[in-house]
Amino acid sequence: MIGKCLFPVAGYGTRFLPATKSMPKEMLPIVNKPLVQYGVEEAIEAGMTNCAFVTGRGKRAIADHFDTSYELEHQIAGSTKEQHLEGIREVMERGVFTTVRQRSMRGLGHAILTGKPLIGSEPFGVVLSDDLCLNSEGAGVLSQMTSLYEEFRCSIVAIQKVSPAEISHYGAVAGPTERDGLIRVSQMVEKPTPEQAPSNFAVIGRYILTPDIFDILRDMPPDDRGEIQLTDALKVQASEGRVLAYEFEGIRFDCGQVPGFVEATQYVFEHHYGQN
To answer: Smallest Cα–Cα separation from 183: which of 199, 168, 195?
Structure first.
């Protein structure tokens, strides 16, 4: 039902300078796999095999990663090193990869609007690669959200409880409980102070959006920083129809911050490589 997923990957990654001076932050590896590949694998698992990247200057490495490297493959053909390419080869075989460039950094809402030519007029997923989401017990977060979309046919955001001290880094949502683990959004505040926050449910980087979001974003005035915020567009959708917030199953690491990146690396190493 949902075949496309949008990846806004145009950011500068300044928190990881100087590593990101000439390398996209989305290509930073968690052990031996770049962050963006984890997100693409999650999307493909959910049936979103058309992966659309909203890129910027200096981001060519992302497109190259999902393309064949003939020289490398020739050099390691027939050796034991070739097995390390099996995962990315499977991703490349199952996925279709397209790109469009965001020429100016004007917020997440603007990045999503920039991706409209790649999405068209159909519901789609959104993955922010900074958020690494893993679920060793079952389906990935996007697969969980896709099942909800089939039932409710509206925009859905993934949420996670955070401490009051952390809520100012996120969008916070509140509203009546639809059922266990599912909230019908009536309030949404971008980066509130602990006192302003309507709850400690934070929006994390997984969304399913209905295509009317593009028309809302196109008419959305920029905020005082000149950015178009997805949060504002979702509030319009919530007031005119329905937006659901889903407390997903699994574990999430904030890899946009150095501590979260290190924590994710340790977790993946211990759970997937520590036994080797």
So the answer is: 199
